[in-house]
Design goal:
By secondary structure, the protein is an all-alpha fold. 78% of the residues lie in helices and 1% in strands. Helix 12 crosses helix 18. The longest helix has 53 residues.
């Protein structure tokens, strides 16, 4: 395939590496849009399929049932084949999953569609960071991690409001069909324009490329490193307000506890995503600047704990104050993006994609476990009241179930205190 931009032209533009990473980030924005879609469809989906909160949480978590374990495969494939073709195919898989989710009344097929969305999405974030390791200076990695996460939450922020309007106007099924069409178009764009590296870099990669045996050996080294597990635990717990609250249970929480309309709930969740969008690159920049990884995460987790305790348990807060508190809470815990820099710095250099993927998989375990757990906690507290054929959960039910969020944030601070500080340097040499 002919390169849309010549080699000499690419080398003369300093912005080209950022363009390449930006195209990858477009896919991450798209997959994040798909990830949070059920959040604004909670009532419609529970009513349509006649399911309880626990069953709904389990259905939505099929995304993470594919996403989290797929990270092991994603990292190995990224390091072996490069991101261009993988990102294009993954985006197409997301589109197919979105179509299946929308086109069937069979709960099993709908769950499979959600599973495909999760599997395809598993390549997005790792692919962007793999592109960053190829095209951008290593001293910018934590900031790039933050910028990439920010671009994902831009999709979530506008998707939260846009999806609310679309679902009310044309219904959840047609909305997901439109999302599928968008995914096909984006897959073509990624295939045409993304490049795995410059010609010189590609030739160097061919000489130094690891075979699967070497990559699997690097994966074993990563998985047997206690620092990787502590770091992944921090990322999972710090990110839980997003995976469990913003992506799924936040909208019904605000409608039940605060009496918000659907539009007001979407605005509150968007304030949360906005806080992450702004806070993630700032936290990444600060971490790079002071060459400290643990301290920003400890501070962010502690601040977010206090703010979420106020949001969940202080009654009668006005909407403007709720949005403000959510903004600062998510800006605080957005220090979570630093775990990707720590994962990279704690792993072999030639297994960067694998290290990032393993870390990302651990982060996303919050969706695997806690989206259903919160639903089952709601079912446990439910008093048997039904509305329109589905269970109705009270404000006290939601406050009880959301207790997991401040507990998780406190635990993240404890783990961050136990994590070995890397000071922004690679701590494991590239050895077999």
């Amino acid at each position: 395939m002919v390169n849309p931009m010549s080699q000499s032209s690419r080398s003369s533009h300093k912005w080209f590496p950022w363009l390449i990473c930006g195209l990858g980030a477009m896919f991450y924005t798209y997959e994040y849009f798909l990830r949070i879609a059920p959040n604004v469809m909670t009532t419609q989906l529970m009513t349509w399929f006649k399911i309880s909160a626990g069953s709904f949480g389990n259905l939505v978590a099929f995304y993470y049932y594919a996403y989290a374990p797929a990270q092991l495969l994603v990292g190995v494939l990224m390091d072996h084949y490069g991101p261009r073709r993988l990102l294009s195919i993954a985006c197409l898989i997301c589109a197919v999953g979105s179509y299946l989710f929308a086109s069937s009344h069979n709960l099993i097929i709908v769950g499979f569609g959600r599973f495909l969305m999760g599997f395809g999405s598993a390549f997005a974030f790792v692919g962007v960071l793999k592109l960053a390791t190829i095209w951008l200076p290593p001293e910018r990695f934590a900031m790039v991690s933050g910028l990439t996460s920010a671009l994902g939450t831009v999709g979530a922020m506008f998707g939260e409001i846009g999806l609310t309007v679309l679902v009310e106007d044309i219904g959840w099924e047609k909305t997901m069909v439109l999302a599928a069409a968008l995914g096909v178009i984006l897959a073509i764009i990624l295939l045409l324009f993304i490049r795995d590296g410059s010609r010189e870099a590609e030739e160097l990669d061919e000489r130094d490329a690891l075979d699967f045996k070497s990559i699997l050996l690097s994966l074993w080294k990563i998985l047997t490193n206690p620092q990787i597990w502590i770091n992944g635990g921090i990322g999972c717990l710090l990110y839980l307000p997003t995976t469990a609250f913003a992506e799924l249970w936040g909208n019904p929480f605000f409608q039940s506890v605060y009496g918000f309309r659907a539009e007001d709930s979407a605005l509150a969740i968007s304030a949360m995503f906005l806080g992450f969008t702004i806070g993630a690159p700032i936290n990444g920049y600060i971490s790079d600047k002071i060459r400290r990884r643990c301290l920003p995460m400890m501070f962010g987790g502690a601040a977010a704990t206090v703010l979420f305790l106020v949001i969940i348990y202080v009654p009668g807060l006005p909407r403007s104050l709720v949005c403000t508190l959510l903004f600062f809470a998510s800006a605080s815990y957005s220090a979570q993006v630093i775990v990707f820099a720590v994962g990279r710095e704690s792993s072999p250099i030639n297994a960067a994609g694998t290290a990032i993927a393993v870390t990302n998989g651990m982060v996303m375990l919050g969706g695997v476990f806690f989206q259903p757990i919160i639903g089952y906690m709601l079912d446990y507290r439910w008093n048997g009241v039904m509305v329109n054929g589905v269970p109705h959960y009270s404000a006290s039910d939601y406050r009880y179930a959301m207790l997991v969020i401040p507990i998780a944030l406190i635990l993240s601070v404890v783990l961050a205190a136990l994590l070995k500080e890397t000071h922004g340097k690679l701590v494991i040499d590239n050895k077999d």
